[in-house]
Write a structure and sequence with these properties.
With 236 residues, the chain is α+β, with helices and mostly antiparallel strands. It has 2 domains: 8-37; 41-235. Helix content is 16%, strand content 34%. Strands 1, 4, 6, 9, 10 and 12 form a 6-stranded antiparallel beta sheet that branches. A 4-stranded antiparallel beta sheet has the order 5-11-7-8, with no helix packed on it. Strands 2-3 form a two-stranded antiparallel sheet. The longest helix is centred in the first third of the chain and has 27 residues, at 9-35.
Length: 236
């Protein structure tokens, strides 16, 4: 009569624990796949730019090379977010008009998005920022596939400060990060040592309606003293 092999209870316990570990790993991986945040998508601003990185901005026309030429073209990460840098979408403002610069519009409408997203990331700046902190200097209007729209306000001292900086003010605001610093010939000539660098910011807004496809975005100046500009947009 053949002897039967008796499996030790400890071996069954080891197998059971191994199965539990494998199941837990599958749940973790599955959860990551399901709940991992969507990848950022850079919005193409190519046909909406009205200035290049070498255009003299936010100053009288006689001021030469007040530009962003030191900012590199192409895809780059700022504040941990990828952006596609190709030019500048400059809007007007009171100070800019008083300087005789009338070539820039008060708004740019219909920037195409065509997708759902949870967050909108801006790479942006502003010139002539002499408005009190908290003043709305520009609005981003999100238009959705169901015909609705929602405004997002850009505020002085909250989302952006002057790109030339002000040594008497903090560098950033409550909802902004300093994304890049650089210089140009005009800054060196006219700052008289009061500021050391150009400043570009990132700001992130939550989408008020993330479950509805956003079709377009309008960028509108509030026509305060400040003249806001966009360099890049990314949705996530």
């Amino acid at each position: 009569m053949a002897a039967h092999k008796v499996e030790h209870p400890r071996n069954k316990h080891v197998v059971f624990l191994g199965c539990l570990a494998a199941l837990a790993l599958l749940l973790i991986i599955g959860g990551y796949v399901i709940f991992s945040p969507p990848k950022p998508a850079c919005i193409d601003l190519g046909k909406y730019y009205n200035a290049t990185l070498t255009t003299s901005l936010n100053s009288p026309s006689y001021v030469r090379e007040n530009n962003l030429a030191a900012l590199l073209h192409g895809r780059q990460a700022f504040s941990g977010v990828p952006f596609e840098v190709g030019g500048v979408l400059q809007l007007s403002g009171k100070n800019l008009q008083e300087w005789g610069r009338t070539e820039f519009p008060e708004e740019a409408d219909g920037v195409r998005v065509g997708r759902k997203f949870s967050e909108l990331h801006l790479l942006h700046g502003a010139g002539g920022v002499s408005d009190p902190d908290g003043t709305t200097i520009a609005t981003l209007v999100l238009h959705y596939a169901d015909g609705s729209s929602r405004p997002l306000e850009l505020k002085s001292g909250v989302n952006v400060r002057d790109w030339w900086g002000n040594p008497s003010q903090p560098v950033t605001g409550a909802n902004s990060k300093l994304a890049w610093t650089g210089t140009n010939p005009a800054l060196k000539q006219y700052s008289h040592g009061n500021t050391g660098a150009l400043r570009i910011y990132t700001t992130t807004f939550k989408n008020p309606q993330p479950r509805i496809r956003a079709t377009t975005i309008d960028f509108k100046s509030a026509m305060k003293n400040s003249s806001p500009f966009l360099i890049a947009l990314t949705v996530q």
